[in-house]
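Work Package 4 report. The design task specified in the project plan requires that, given a folded chain encoded as structure tokens, an amino acid be chosen for each position. We show below one input record used in the internal validation round.
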């Protein structure tokens, strides 16, 4: 049986979005209050997968190696908060490159779904931009939008929980 997942945008949802991009691990800032909602997602039987556009690589402002260090710091910080994630998928391309992995295209979500055995019809995407919700729709899952750099993750998880309960969906 395939599992359910909550896909999460990184910048603006889990970490502070910067106008000059996150280029080094030192620039990565975890948003306050994300630990309890992430733990609740896991307790409800969902896998947690980060889906993020990172054109900072395509723009030549950082490298894949540096991005792996940024994501290792993210994993460590979340682990310190008692949260684990199942995967991080990122698109390194600039918006003008027309790739299939850059949101709003569904490529990264579909790749994660295939690799992790995820049932898209039972999964969700939480993002802070319209492109996140569009990628979710194109991939076949539902989406919830939260304010950028805000405290909307708790409310988004509550909305998912209410939708699941009203549909009679239990933990897997």
């Amino acid at each position: 049986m395939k599992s359910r997942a909550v896909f999460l945008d990184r910048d603006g949802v889990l970490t502070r979005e910067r106008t000059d991009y996150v280029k080094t691990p030192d620039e990565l800032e975890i948003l306050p209050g994300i630990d309890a909602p992430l733990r609740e997602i896991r307790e409800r039987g969902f896998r947690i997968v980060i889906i993020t556009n990172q054109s900072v690589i395509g723009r030549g402002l950082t490298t894949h190696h540096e991005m792996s260090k940024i994501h290792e710091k993210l994993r460590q910080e979340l682990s310190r908060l008692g949260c684990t994630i199942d995967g991080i998928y990122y698109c390194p391309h600039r918006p003008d490159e027309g790739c299939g992995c850059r949101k709003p295209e569904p490529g990264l979500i579909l790749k994660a779904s295939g690799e992790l055995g995820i049932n898209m019809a039972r999964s969700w995407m939480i993002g802070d931009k319209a492109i996140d919700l569009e990628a979710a729709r194109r991939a076949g899952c539902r989406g919830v939008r939260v304010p950028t750099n805000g405290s909307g993750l708790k409310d988004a998880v509550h909305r998912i929980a209410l939708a699941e309960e009203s549909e009679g969906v239990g933990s897997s």
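Residues 64-80 form the longest helix (17 residues). Validation will be extended to a larger panel in the next phase.
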